[in-house]
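User: quick one
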Amino acid sequence: MSTLQIIEILVRIAWLAGAVAFVLGLVRMNSPATARNGNLLSAGGMAVAVAATAILIVARQQLDPASFGIRASSWALIIGGVIIGGGLGLYAARTVKMTAMPQLVSLFNAVGGGAAALIAIDDYLRIVGGGSVRLDTHVFIVLDIIIGSITFTGSLIASGKLQGLIAGKPILIPGGRLVTLALAAVTVLAALILFVTGKPSLALIAVILAASLTFGVTMTLPIGGADMPVVISLLNSFTGTAVAMAGFVIDNPVLIIAGALVGASGAILTKLMADAMNRSVLNIMIGGFGGGDDAAGASATAGGSVRSISADDVAIQLAYAQHVIVVPGYGLAVAQAQHAVRELADLLEERGVDVKYAIHPVAGRMPGHMNVLLAEANVPYPQLKEMDDINPEFDRADVALVIGANDVTNPAARRPGSPVSGMPILDVDHARSIVVIKRSMGKGYAGIDNELYTNEKTGMLFADAKDGLAALTAAVKAL
Amino acid sequence: MTPDQIDALITALTVFTLAILVGFAVISKVPATLHTPLMSGANSIHGIVLVGAMLIAAEARGGVSQALSLIAVAFATMNVVGGYVVTDRMLQMFRKRPAPAPKPASDEAEA
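Assistant: Done. Structure below.
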């Protein structure tokens, strides 16, 4: 065996070790106690895989210059790319506010998908001069370009929507669905011609690339901002699949394993997120009731009066309660009020009140996002209760303090016939008294009235989450 | 296709399929509270595409190919570095730390 062969084997083993670290890292992310460790393990696996690749490139250039050649330019490309990309990624990841984190994840997802598509394009440019192309080569290259391109533009649009660069509300292009369908048809047709003829054609690949990039845009634009987490999760799964396809294209096992892992995990996660909102992924992608204003007519309540309440009254209720359950929602995340809620909770605990947080699986902008926001504000992890654990406790709660959460508290979900029917909800209405901090009587993204607000036990404190909490804290202090 | 090529293709498809099954098995056990960090962590894992980007950069000939692979390496590195760092920032917040403001012990109702 030549030295180069031995190195090739060792590098493949290092790649395998990297893949093992990815799997074990994900396993360790099962529990909050080991999750950080798991992420570091995964990062370590990545470092090993990348270092092994660098060694492989050096070895090939040094030991077999006839086949691989020594090219200083290749190192300029690699090192230059690593510095540019690494610098941008590091800067963005370290400076982003935790509330803006979903759009950053989406941005990282976009560039990952873009890189996978570029690998296929580059590979195609190399084989396009030759004769016929094998069917399997064509299939993997075309799939890589299609999926990678869709995830690239789709994730950028999703990120832009969450960042507010693009209007969050569904943007309906006249005939937009038809355009999307036409793009899909063009892509499939071009791909079929390539597969059947087996002749390499740069023109057809360009058509597929352009159609897929546009498809990513037209697919994501009509989806409402509130559905973006599910979309990002789906696109994350797509990127994994695109990377696995890139692995087939350049015949690299670690890309196949890691890509398939992410493809599968993203698919499961997407389904879990959609399930928690009682929606199907398909429903979201083709635009269901997430249409916001469109669905406003589907009101489930016949009205009823709403009782407005002052901060001072709420403060008295809270201060003399034994058990308070805080229900944080999207409004709290948007107002970045996680520190304000923590301050109020501390104050109440000093007075001997038992404070817990009820976390709906889709509270915030992504599953678990609320936990991250509250953890950032130093809320002790044991106080955060998941829905199934906290629901029985509402019966003995003196006050349920709902902050910017809407649909996840709507009792209408227990009855059939409403758009939220069947969605698991927090049993907020079981509490002895309910206080809702909300800016206005605006509807949640399901676009229906919340029966909780007209419940006779409910008092509405109309305020921005942050201002409302600050007023409450001041009022409790003054007691 | 030669028998060797068929072998390689089947092996790759086998690895792909088994990795998908592993992905399903691993993820279905993760509690909902960790879903966001998990999504972000999975997002960093597909940054493995950096390995592919480096390999095509090493063999890039001509301006177009060099430009494509430079962008691919930069994109992939951004995915890897940014992904792991932001995931770590999220998970850092779950760790237990000493309470910043010690509370009177008597007030800790059923803590």
